[in-house]
Amino acid sequence: MILRHLNLEQELEWTETRHVCELVIESPKFLREIIKDLTITEEEKELSITVDGKPLDFDKDTDVIFNPLKLDFNSRRAMTTLLKMLVKTSLSEEFYLATNTFKSKIVKYLDELIDAEAFNFEVSTDDFTIDSIAKAVSIHIVGDEDDFVELLTDYVAMMVDLAKIKLFVFIGLRPLMTEEELVRFCHNLDNHQIDILLIESCVGETLSNVPRIIVDTDNCEI
């Protein structure tokens, strides 16, 4: 995966052994332009990210995170995929019999409720899928709230599995983490082979095996 910008001479590249890159933009105007390219749908962008020569779809393939203290573990993308996975699993050879038995019990239970009140209704079909039941009981995805590093790791790993995110972009993550936490987070990402981009407005300590581009207030690359 390679990040390029029309106004930058350097490139950032993610590899099989390097899953974190950093872009430090000290110029507020340029920083706004970068964030706009990442978050606003436009036909022409000065910023491009390619995977094996093919452009990344920012809307589908990236997750831009402005506030990591308020992660949306139950985003529509994640929950939609989770429900599809539940339906697929419920129809698998392992669960097929149990699923149909469960559905039959639901229909029987509803029939008994209707009969008890002498309502002039009937349950006309058992042709429903497990996702409708899952929605009714309000399934929530949870993360490790006691460890910020593990919380972030749980989030990105879950969104890769459920929403097929290819790149996570964290805006201003460094001020919220100690150096030890940031190193541990990067180590977790390498273990999970998950790619992230750190976008910061101030220069921090150099991270091992993390390529970085620094653009100063005069838009000069360092």
Strand order of the largest sheet: 6-7-8-3-9
Averaged pLDDT, please?
88
Low-confidence blocks of residues:
none
Q: What is the highest CATH level, the class of the largest domain?
A: Alpha Beta
Global structural class: alpha/beta
Radius of gyration based on Cα positions: 23 Å
The number of strands is 9
Can you tell me about this structure?
- It is a single chain.
- This protein has 222 residues and is of the alpha/beta class.
- The protein folds into 2 domains: 2-72 and 143-215, Rossmann fold, CATH 3.40.50; 77-137, no CATH class.
- Helices cover 41% and strands 17% of the residues.
- It has 7 helices and 9 strands; from the N terminus they run βββαββαβααααβαββ.
- The chain has helices at residues 28-39, 58-61, 76-90, 96-116, 130-137, 148-163, 179-192, and strands at residues 2-5, 12-13, 20-25, 47-51, 54-55, 62-65, 167-171, 196-200, 212-215.
- A 5-stranded parallel β-sheet has the order 6-7-8-3-9. The chain has a 4-stranded antiparallel β-sheet with strand order 2-1-4-5, covered by helices on one side.
- Helix 3 packs across helix 6 and helix 6 packs parallel to helix 7.
- The longest helix has 21 residues, at 96-116.
- It is elongated and about 80 Å long.
- The two termini are 22 Å apart.
